[in-house]
Fold this sequence. Notes:
Elements: H1 2-6, H2 29-35, H3 51-55, H4 61-72, H5 78-93, H6 95-105, H7 111-119, H8 125-135, H9 138-144, H10 151-159, H11 164-173, H12 194-199
Helix pairs in contact: 6-9, 8-11
Amino acid sequence: YLAETQKNSLQHINRLNVFARSEYMNVDAATRRNLELTKPLQFEGSKKSTLLYVLDKTGTAMGGRLLRAWIEQPLQSVEGINRRLDAVEELLQNHPARDALSQTLAGMYDIERLCSRIAYGSINARDCEALLASLEKLPAVLEALPMLKAGEFVDISAQLDMMEDIHGLLSSAIIDNPPLSVKDGGIIRDGYDAEVDACR
């Protein structure tokens, strides 16, 4: 289905996860709308007067999407709910760790969206620069996480991929302040590729 509809390589999909309905509360579209979880009954297109608007103090686009998903798919597992609550409580009480994480995440671009553009071949040089800038923040995130002891943070710390290979590729291949369009040329750094250097 994806191969037919996306008309693109699917090499970026390397595993499938089973979505277990039993893990999440089944909230139908009408109920979501009446509860004004993420969309108001009136003022279509606005987030105001919704639970999402009240709760959303996220600093990145990725965090905003995750919070929306959590609101739209509430957990049913008491253990899972308590793990999240423990993480929130620790962030409330541990001001130095919270401030360190907030400062580190500030200005981080949307890595998820940038990676999807790479997968579909629609990325441009400015996107590469944004991805590089975001990857450069990851070591500081990993450094701040050990200050937090809740299970959620321990798991994130253990699973966080620094993507050194991608960082190395981007920093060595793409010039600083590249042009927006590939057609403008001059995106590849001198000395990165002998064939490009020879053509120049």
